[in-house]
Design a protein that fits this description.
13% strand, 3 domains, alpha+beta, four-stranded antiparallel beta sheet, six-stranded antiparallel beta sheet, 625 residues, globular, Jelly Rolls
Length: 625
Amino acid sequence: MKQNNTPALSFFVMIFIMVLIIIGHFTQPKLKQDFFTRELGYDVTSYYLYLPMTFIYHDPGFENKAIIDSIFLKYKPSPTFYQTLELPNGRRVPNYTCGFAYAYAPFFLIGHLWAKSSSFPADGFSFPYQFAIATGILFYLLVGWIFLRRFLLFLFSDQTTAIVMLIIGTATNYFAEAIGNYLQPHAMLFSGYALLLYLTYKWHAQQKLRYLIPAGIVMGWMILSRPSDIVCIFIPLLWNIYNRKSFQDKLQLLRINAGQLVWMLLAALVVFIPQFLYWKHVTGQFIFFSYKNTEGFDFMKPHILNVLFSFKKSLFVYTPVLIFVVAGFFGLKKYFPAYRLSIIVYALVNFYFLSSWAAWWNGGSFGMRYFVQSYAVMCIPLGCAVDYIRSSRAWVKIMSVSAILLFTFLNLFQIWQFMHWIIPDDRMTFAYYKRIFLKTSVNEDDRRLAEIERSFAATESFNNKEDYRHYTLAHYDFDSINSSVIDPSKLDTGTVHSSKYSCKLSNENPYYPTFKVKYRNLVPADRDHVWIKVSLWYFSSGDIREDQTSFVINMPHRKYNLKYRAFDFHKQPFVPGQWNHFMVEYMTPFPYSEDDEFEFYTWYHGKGAPVYIDDLNIEAYVRNY
């Protein structure tokens, strides 16, 4: 497979891909609205906050709430501040670990020096920071291609290397991540895997410490940055193992170089030390689980079919060229038996991890972004497929090249649609996909075929009730009509709105009543959402701002609250000493499992004076189309 030739073609392809990434970076349509001023938002905020909170505000535990309030008021990184986990001691820690803060740090420093020497505020979020970090990240992306090319040339000819790079760079959703989601983990981790492959190959060829220490640093950084990428250890661990003798040879190699392995492990550990020290300072523990506010894994029910074939998001619908990667796995035994085990184990475990993630559609992105970093490893089976095609009969070449060109065109065109807001972040349906296929513009009638657009804000507005039919989901008059069994000890006869009874809420009875319904029993199979309208009457003899009470709607998925809303009574107009009407609206989220249950309940968290509720009504609104 490997030929001795001058690797000119692959070099020019590498430069071509680099130029495409740079051009795409500076010509994104979103920059016409916000020119590098909305880069550090949503999940990126959580990765990034370590830097400004530690080095500018000297408040790594987020104890001064006014700082975050000011940043969110001025820069609006997201509708709500979900990026941190509140601790019992009143401090906060970012949901995500600090690995990507390392990557941002040099460019954060450049942005800070720029802001300090200019009229921009040196607050961590002004234009110099956002531009310097967003543009500086290109360095990691481009360097990744240098090492990927070097690695591929160890295995393949220049021509095959060039073709593989061109396919990965233009026919997969890597390109969308590289030019639009560059501050997210995946394009950067792609470069990390490319470097790890290069270092793994070099160390197995020449057992030198200068390859193993960087490999330890790279693996440590990738695991710290995204713990699910602990699967990267399978690459060097199983490299060159393909039968019993090779397994024994690998053990002997590791024994002989045990000292180097210790240095590699120390190098990986060093990467974690700042995180351990940070956790110790803020939480009191050297090791802390900060991912409590994340969706978690459905290991017993992985979303395999959705991940592979769903029109909402999937591998083969939005990145169909991966068919050639799958085909290439069958060539590993013939072409690269020494690497076959490490690649297959890595691919299978990685696929199982990622398809088990509860939010299997990967959030807001084009295609399955969580898989992008693995494309560096998938270059090996892809190269096998390319070599097979190049050595095949003419009709195989014609069909394969035609398919690859078609998939490349489709990928680039759909990325263009995504960048121009024709393909939405995470609301695709089969009906909408058919309607907008190869279209350069869409109208409102087209968009009605997509999933409903959901708000990330704390409150929602239901403004088009005329498009919905509604029915009573639950009702409680606490007399004769109740949607669940009522405990008589929770009732009161002295203060009522209608009929004979009301429900008394107090410190002794803080949660009542509770109504539950499964998603599958609430949202029809041919609809993607339902609006919920809750209304009730309440009475408080004192100030409801002191005797605080909320109506809670929640959809938990195991221990994770997919969409929790606590609607406070005191945030609506009220008059003490009389019955007040209270009404809220809530749109159902997209489910992780249709067996998950919605919970509806009233929550008293006041200071002592009871609150009475009556005539609680829960209505469901189902869209007519």
